[in-house]
Amino acid sequence: MTQSPSGAALKPRPVGHVFSSLAEMAPQKPLLTIGERTVTRLEFDLATNRLAHALSACGVQHNDIVTIALPNSLKFYEFVVATWKLGATPNPVSSRLPAAELQAIIDIAAPRLVVCQDVEGLKGVPTVSPDLGFNPDLSAEPLPEKTPKYWKAMTSGGSTGRPKLIVDHGDSQWVPGQPLPFQRSDATYINPGPLYHNAPFHFMFAALFGGGHVVEMTKFDPLKFLELVERHRVNWVVLVPTMMKRIWGVLQEQDREFDVSSLEFVLHTASACPVPLKENWINWLGPEKIFEVYSGTERTGVCFITGDEWLKHKGSVGKPIGCEMKILGDDGEELPPGEIGEIYFLAQKGKDATYHYVGSDAKTRGDWESLGDLGYVDEDGYLYIADRRVDMIISGGANVFPAEVEGALEQHPGVASVAVIGLPDDDLGQRVHAVVQPKPEYKAELSEEILREHLSRFLVLYKTPRTYEFVDTPLRDDAGKVRRSKLREERVAAGR
């Protein structure tokens, strides 16, 4: 049980005020390291108090939403925690979103405030720069305790490519210094992922709430990752398979060895991990250190598997924990082991217990919900993913929805029709590929360079196609439908 300096058992506190408790327990203990700078618990608590007062002066109140469009940085951490200290809900988004894409999120989130570097073009909401609150003359006095109704509102795309909010119903209070079940309160965590994605955000803050020290990479680099693990004696990390592949590649290229013996827990998520790659990591670090989780930001269903289990069920993403799961056929009937169907979950506490959407509706059968993924279970109840959301592309662990990319491409006057598909990629898992039919009058001049320039005004970089091909035949039928699966199969068969 976590105790205060006086020895008394600590009680849960609102997420923002957890940091005040941590500062009281050990004020000079490192909380966050970014580059060559390490911030103590006390420094961070005082800085976020100042920023919370500044946000309050901007009108942020209890249960408001604050959209935070900042890169991984100390300011990102401070804005999130300052938002919590006012009892408000942070909505992290990519700092590289074009104004039109950010505006679409703002329209559904209705935030009280948007924090971003470039505020030009945004409408209907007050905006502030990341320099807000960094005035040493601002009060650092503690704020009244307020518990946010929702502790985070993450942003995602729907099946149509339109943005949606996934508002988390998890507990907005935490016992200061109480780690997750598989961790220690004094563990060091390294964050290699973008904090506007759910898994990096969730696990990083869980590490801090639990009394840990977080090493923030700001941007993933495989060699830098290995160096930081060695330098800071990192204990745990959450990765996606693309990161794992790049780290493994660096290990094969380097003449030196890296001391990563401090690693105790390596969790991977977000997309399917190739069996040979996972075998390499298990052989390198040992099965007792490798874990996998399959879930969505919605948390209606979670599957978990250890390295030892995986060796007996290679390719599996594990068994459900804290939920029920079944595989259903097209007729809604539950399928036996070995048969592929759509995966449905029911959270332990029932429907609507873990989240709600803003801007979308869940796919349901009664109280059971699906993320649209297909899979099967073996005789022992272990889940295997057969496909992920038929048309969705998972590139480097990030979700890319073809309809969104197609919609942006079709805004170019030279595009008659377009289909966006995911093709196999050794590094990213899948790469975004655009099949474009130019209008006859643009056929001679339409090029990759022109379309890349066009898309830079509409889409964040990771969503833009890496490869293009131009065709003469229409890609959609009279009903406006496109058979992406057929296009994908043809190109895979041709070795593209």
Radius of gyration: 23 Å
What would you call the structural class? Answer: alpha/beta
Strand order across the largest sheet: 3-2-12-11-13-14-15-16-17
CATH fold call of the domain at 272-387? Luciferase, domain 3
As residue ranges, the low-confidence spans are none
Shape: globular
**Mean pLDDT over the residues:** 92
**Strand segment count:** 28
Helix content: 25-40%
Q: What's the end-to-end separation, in Å?
A: 56 Å
For this structure, what is the CATH homologous superfamily of the domain at 272-387? Answer: Luciferase, Domain 3
Task: Work out the strand percent.
Answer: 25-35%
Tally the helices. Answer: 12
The CATH architecture of the domain at 272-387 can be named as: Roll
- At the first level of CATH, what is the class of the domain at 272-387? Mainly Beta
Largest sheet: 9 strands, mixed
Molecular structure report:
- With 496 residues, the protein is of the alpha/beta class.
- The protein has twelve helices and 28 strands.
- The protein has a nine-stranded mixed β-sheet, sandwiched between helices.
- Helix 2 packs across helix 3 and helix 6 crosses helix 7.
- The protein is globular and about 65 Å long.
Question: In a nutshell, what does this entry contain?
Answer:
Among the domains are: 272-387, Roll (Luciferase, domain 3), CATH 2.30.38; 393-493, GMP Synthetase, Chain A, domain 3, CATH 3.30.300. It is globular. By secondary structure, the chain is an alpha/beta fold.
